[in-house]
Amino acid sequence: MGKSRARRFRRAPFSPAGPEQRRDGEGGPEEEPAAELLEKLQHPSAEVREYACASISKLLQQKHVIPAFLQRDVVRCLGPLLMDHSLAVRETAAGALRNLSACGGFEVCDDMVTKDIMTPLVALLKECSTGLDANQLSPKKCRDMNKNYIEDIANEAINLLWNVCECNNTAVYIFNKEGCLEAVLHYMKKFSTNVDLAISVANCLQAVTEDNPDLLSSFNASAQQVLETVMLCPESTMKHILLRTLIAGTIWNIKDTIPPGSLGSMVNAILKIFSESLAIDAGEMIISMNEAEKKRLKLPAEAETEENMSDVIDNCVLSEDDDMEEIPKGKVRRENDISDLLPSDKWELKEVTALLMAQQTALEIIVNMCCSEDPSDDEWEELSSSDESDLFMENSYNEGSGLLMSPLCLSDEVNSAFLNNLIPKKILEKTGFPNSVALDICMHKPSWKPLIKKLNAVQCRALTCLHSILLVSDVDCLGGASALQSLAQHLSQLVFSKTELPADTEFLEAITSALRALLQTMASKNISQCMSPEQLLALCEAGIHSSNASVRVNVVSILGISGSVLAKGQDTAETLKMIGKFLLEVAMKEPSLVVAGEALDALFDVFADGKEAEKAAVQIKLLPALKEFQPVFKMRMRKEGKGQYSTDQLCVLDNVKMNLRRFIAYQETLGKTPT
């Protein structure tokens, strides 16, 4: 109801695809291997304990077996093994707990913290950090002297720490209290020789620094220097681009520790990193990496090389002359990066996975930057006058899209620091459908098939990013009326380019949010809209049946915005009748009070004024319908309001109830009641 609000992305733990958790009560064949394996964890032989940990780790990737292990206190059985005398046991125990935290979700992570997993985990992290630089390991503790057990154990432990801190505030409190930051940053110093470990650390850092003011004092000059060193590393592999992107997100989270005079250059450095990842065409990268893999597999094993990596990247960087019409066509919770778990001979797949995670992360952080709530004009003055922000000003004018590329400009509106700039070309290009050739490659390579979901996630994040920028940007900074009309045509093409309207819930939420924000902006400036009433109604008919309430709210709002514009025109009564009937039906039949309230709000906007609106209101008997519905809506609010909706939602619904009474009174004064 009213203007749409920018959403913030909160990162969420990885939950691998697989069988759904069983709901058929206790018992089952899983309990027998669970009991047997948990018993073997106490065996005097380190090899038996390692085997048991590895077996449990594999089983825990199947959600339906997790309850059987939880019932037998798997956390307290595995926890002590994090400090086992055998390094191999430590690693496999940490891996098993990592899988439990990743596959079990929030409730399991809460249970793990309640059962004190943080005590042995913190001890392990600190011990590994202390021994990280040691050149020798006791032969009694490790059987494979060519394996770096310390770093491998640390990688599993950091991923476990990331998962539990993502889900549980107590874990974050313990992280702060126990001074874990120092140990974690020590692992980061290995980024030049172990980028997988560094990426795990960066993911963990981005999680623990989000909304954690108590940690800020720990980021002294030395800690910031570690992060700055990683941000400036010159390596151009996709893993390093992902690493720099994650570190940029961490630095944005701790921006309050940056001196005001350095804030502008810091944000410009962040945007430069995002520009680096968003400049790469993921579809072209998939095609190139597929060819590289074919070529590598034809070569003798000893001749395998990654030296052609930079050529592949160069081929995938988007040309500055590419325009919007050339966007490939074809067909949210963040997932944890698990590229370190991919087979070692899948480096091409790892690179593409890292790129897509970098792009998704960059877009999510830009969304959060639009929702930020701190800087003042003075703090951003240096930034807005800088010429370093190449994400937003690579060309002063992009002839292909008609969008003026202006520098990033952040203002100090009451609630947030806004990105007050033009639609960035690179973000806009990411809103297009993934490359159809790349999709075909992924469809026919089983190990590459998960990339399809990641490609779609990047598109949805780009649309959400677009939505946020539209909410906080001035029309002139967006390129003016013609640029917004071009954008409307682009978004319409995304919706209507297929024979059937899209059904994917995440895409529908993202595209309808962007459309809603765009139409709001255009209506507020009296800019003519490009979508026909027939298209709008078709979109709304599809969206109103979505299981996602946000999609339903968006399509109802879109119809209200468009209807209010049509009400000011000539000969629009028939279209307004269709819109009015649609909104009335939603208000009366919609199971969600929030969506029903939005439909009423839209009706108020559409039929607020204008001869055509008055004519249509009489013909659809709007006034008697609303008078009949008014007591029903009040009763629903009394019965359903408490417990089902947030305080903010109830406040908005109260306003709708009051506006309904006023709107009925207004309609009665018009003398439009039917005879």
TrEMBL record:
What species is given as this protein's source? Haliaeetus albicilla
**What is the protein's name according to its record?**
HEAT3 protein
InterPro entries, per the entry: ARM-like, ARM-type_fold, SYO1-like, TPR_SYO1
| SUPFAM superfamilies listed in its UniProt record | ARM repeat (SSF48371)
Q: Which region ranges are annotated with the description Disordered?
A: 1-34
Tell me which residues make up the SYO1-like TPR repeats domain: 413-669
Q: Which family does it belong to?
A: Belongs to the nuclear import and ribosome assembly adapter family.
The Gene Ontology terms for molecular function here are: unfolded protein binding
Q: What is the lineage of its organism?
A: Eukaryota, Metazoa, Chordata, Craniata, Vertebrata
Domain of life of the organism in this record? Eukaryota
Signal peptide start and end residues: none
One GO BP annotation is: ribosomal large subunit biogenesis
Biased composition annotated in UniProt, kind: Basic residues:
1-11
